[in-house]
Amino acid sequence: MSTPTVKDFMTEMPHTINEDLSLKKAMEMMHEYGCRHLPVLHGGKVVGILSDRDIKLVSTFSNSEELPVSEAMTEDPYSVSPDTPLKVVAEEMNKHRFGSAVVVGANNKPVGIFTVSNALEALISRL
Question: Disulfide-capable partner of 9 in 58, 97, 111, 122 (CB 3.0 to 4.6 Å)?
Answer without folding.
Answer: 122
